[in-house]
Specification:
five-stranded mixed β-barrel; four-stranded antiparallel β-sheet; single chain; GMP Synthetase, Chain A, domain 3
Length: 385
């Protein structure tokens, strides 16, 4: 079942077809596949017969195909498409006008006329053969790893994907250097009696294919929405004042986290208005040097050289510029921060934007209960029987 989920089949019911591969409502509105895309133009363009469709295969592999036979396709349909050689089985992930926008978004290099063809909706015979090929993928991967190790090749086979007609298999591998796998291809072809294709991937691509949960508690970006990988350097962490801790900066792939680039442009743009951090601030209290910067609050933290206890002093950016201008004119201020300047910590406050009162308007006020006084008989009164 895990192998079927890697192809976007969230349930076994999706494979139980009737008639012309009838679309299932659960697969139409939701998907468990990696790099799943939301069709925000579904209500506008789903009624038309699509010219081009996006079809997903195993894990993060997708492709665009031409609907030459004018099939009325919907998201979740299992189709047979053109492959080299034979045909492959995939699941429709996007149809309609959104496909053209997706082609421009991913900068697809070919025209729509050069796309491969969609042959037909998959029949039950096609699906049975496809499921049989999926079933032996894990066993093939483990056996191929042993064969590569016996040949002494410095490579790791991370995944195996069989073609839908069970005539070809793609072996995804990772290697730090160039590997001569010609002998391995011969051994694999003789062992599995199938056409072999080798594809080298990086550590980030492998993490996207395997998937997982990141330190933020969400699914890995490479397996959900990242389609192209941009190089990440430690300079991204330095600009954002992130501690250079390799254990915290590295993702599950062992490389620097892709999310270090998400806010980098905002930090670089904001830092253009900040003064030079290499200059010392000369005051009568001593020379202060820069320690860290809170970019979005506009505060720079300084410490005095030679002090026994390392005390961080928050200084507004305007005050830092003022002191640097004073030092350039050989004027030394008395203090690093003016006495009348008080830096208050930012607090999140809720405002009444809709005029509906406070958030606690429906809560009843709890008043302290009054203690009941016990009735006591007056003095001198005796209980007579």
């Amino acid at each position: 079942m895990d192998s079927l989920k890697a192809r976007g089949c969230c349930s076994q019911k999706q494979l139980e077809i009737s008639g012309e591969n009838k679309d299932r409502i659960d697969s139409y509105f939701s998907s468990c596949s990696k790099l799943d895309a939301f069709n925000w133009l579904r209500e506008v363009s789903d009624m038309d017969i699509p010219d081009a469709v996006e079809i997903r295969f195993k894990n993060t592999r997708k492709g665009f195909y031409r609907n030459v036979n004018g099939l009325r396709l919907k998201r979740g349909d299992i189709v047979a498409v053109e492959a080299s050689p034979g045909h492959d089985i995939g699941i429709v992930s996007l149809v309609g006008e959104i496909v053209d926008k997706q082609l421009n978004h991913v900068k697809h290099p070919v025209n729509s006329e050069e796309l491969k063809k969609v042959y037909r909706k998959a029949k039950q015979v096609d699906i049975d053969k496809w499921k049989e090929a999926i079933r032996i993928e894990e066993q093939t991967m483990l056996q191929s790893r042993k064969l590569a190790s016996d040949l002494g090749l410095n490579m790791k086979i991370g995944d195996v994907e069989y073609q839908g007609d069970n005539t070809k298999a793609i072996f995804y591998y990772i290697a730090d250097e160039r590997v001569d796998f010609r002998e391995l291809i011969k051994v694999l072809a003789e062992t599995f009696r199938i056409r072999i294709e080798m594809k080298q991937i990086g550590a980030r691509q492998e993490a996207g294919k395997i998937g997982g949960i990141g330190t933020c508690g969400r699914e890995l970006c490479c397996s959900t929405f990242v389609t192209n990988f941009v190089s990440v350097s430690t300079n991204s962490a330095r600009v954002q004042e992130v501690a250079l801790n390799p254990q915290k900066l590295a993702g599950q792939c062992g490389k620097l986290k892709c999310c270090l680039n998400y806010e980098l442009a905002g930090y670089e743009d904001a830092r253009k208005q900040f003064p030079d951090t290499t200059k010392l601030l000369k005051t009568n209290q001593g020379d202060a040097y820069h320690l860290k910067t809170d970019v979005y609050r506009g505060i720079m933290w300084y410490g005095f050289s030679g002090s026994a206890a390392q005390a961080l002093v928050p200084v507004p950016v305007e005050r830092v510029k003022e002191i640097q201008q004073m030092n350039s004119r050989e004027i030394v201020p008395d203090e690093l921060v003016e006495v009348n300047v008080v830096i208050k910590p930012d607090r999140l406050e809720y405002t009444n934007g809709a005029g509906q009162g406070s958030l606690t308007r429906f809560e009843k006020e709890r008043r302290p209960k009054k203690k009941k006084k016990k009735h006591r008989p007056p003095r001198g009164h005796h209980n007579r029987s």
